Amino acid sequence: MIIAVDGPTASGKGTIAKALAAHFGLPHLDTGLLYRAVGRQCALNGGNADDPADALAACAFPDDLLADPELRSEATGGLASRVSVHPGVRQALFERQRAFATRPGGAVLDGRDIGTVIAPEAEAKLFVVASVPARAERRFREMQAAGRAVSLPEIAADLEARDARDRSRAEAPLVAAADAVLLDTSDLDRDAAIAAAIRIVEQAAQGR
Ligand code: C5P
């Protein structure tokens, strides 16, 4: 079974995808991490994330970059959002994601375009959303726990800028697949959100 979990930054999709993978015994790929690695590599190369050639060159990042804690920073998230608008970058990362999605036995992938572009045939599709204040608060707590100095208004502004860029890009914009089930986690704690997601996948699996 392929499970596609899409949604904006800090909606809870990563936590939900990890929990679904553990619950159903499937491998999990955080596809945002690939775009973050491209953004980070572009900066390390001294390139410009808005330049298609610089961004494409950064797709040849070494695999060990995926373990770099800097990939989780807001700054790298912003770079990821900028490199991800280039069709060449999306194309370069497509095969890797597609190969993961089509593993025998299935997989869970989370991102922005899993249910629409990477695995449109996924048996279960979730589109996870939450209000900007709820997402900003979560991200703020995560950053504080990681010892990063950030302010709540800055995080909210950054989330909104990234949402706008992800939704308005021409190639694979952030949009729910027509057959995705919407899960709003604004008023749900972690366990309630995971339980709701498991129910959605179980229902989708029954409907197959
Ligand atoms: O999910 P995460 O915040 O780690 O993603 C970072 C950025 O990578 C997103 O803002 C988005 O622009 C891009 N991305 C994407 N397609 C995906 C996953 C992430 O364009 N499947």
Descriptive report:
The protein is an alpha/beta fold and about 210 residues long. The chain has one domain: 3-Layer(aba) Sandwich (Rossmann fold). It contains nine helices and five strands. Strands 2-3-1-4-5 form a five-stranded parallel beta sheet, sandwiched between helices. It is globular and about 50 Å long. The N and C termini lie close together (about 10 Å). The mean pLDDT is about 95. Cytidine-5'-monophosphate binds near residues 31, 32, 35, 162 and 166.
Topology:
Blueprint: E1 2-6, H1 13-24, E2 28-30, H2 31-44, H3 52-57, H4 74-83, H5 87-101, E3 107-111, H6 114-118, E4 124-129, H7 132-145, H8 152-168, E5 181-184, H9 190-206
Parallel strand pairs: 1-3, 1-4, 2-3, 4-5
Helix pairs in contact: 1-9, 2-4, 4-8, 7-8
The structure holds cytidine-5'-monophosphate.
Identify the notable features of this structure and list them briefly.
alpha/beta, Rossmann fold, five-stranded parallel sheet, binds cytidine-5'-monophosphate, globular, 208 residues, single chain
Mean pLDDT: 95
Low-confidence stretches: none
Q: Largest sheet, if any? A: 5 strands, parallel
CATH superfamily: P-loop containing nucleotide triphosphate hydrolases
Give the % helix: 40-55%
Spatial arrangement of strands, main beta sheet: 2-3-1-4-5
Gap from first CA to last CA: 10 Å
Rounded to an integer, what's the Rg over CA atoms? 16 Å
Whole-number tally of structural domains: 1
